[in-house]
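Continuing the batch. This is chain 6 of the set; chains 1 through 5 are on the previous pages. Same settings as before, nothing changed between runs. Recording input and output for traceability.
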Amino acid sequence: MSQQKPIRILVVDDHFMVRMGLSASLNVEPDIEVVAEAGNAEAALDAYRRVQPTLVMMDLRLPGMSGAECTAELIREFPEARVLMLSTHSSEEEIYRAIQAGARGYVVKSIVREELLRAVREVHRGGRYFDSIVASHLAERQSHRALSSREVDVLRLVAQGFGNKEIAKALDIAEVTVKLHVSHMLEKLEVKDRTQAATVALQRGIISLD
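Output for chain 6:
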């Protein structure tokens, strides 16, 4: 009887062809077996409960609940879960949120197969793995001052073209409070005006206009 493969993987990605390609590539390795696939966060949580994989390969952007949110929910229920984020997106804020959610590794989909396998095995062993692109973004993010959740709310409306009075009404706060948040936001982002603030925030992935 053949020995059971030690690295049992759940692949989570909303694109069927991506899941199929990853599964085919991983299953040829003697120490790796894809035991389940899921196309969204809810299906991923159900699959984890059912098959108890030793590693989850998670796409960042999923329909509905994001990959980072799914990771946080998964680790709340299964603290021992090991998640490797795999995504085409690598903005510093998205990477930071995924790590904060509990992901042990993060690689971009453009990496070569050998590095992907290295990441899988390192995370499975309990280590951490970030490819060079991700590591660079993460270091950049850690050098910046973090915005508060309210400042992000204000920034999102600024990016949509709202004035201070409109923002105050939308968030049910005083206009003078909005001005204070905007001032702090400009200082933390190290920009001179609202347009620059919106541009930088979109580039870093702090906000999205989706």
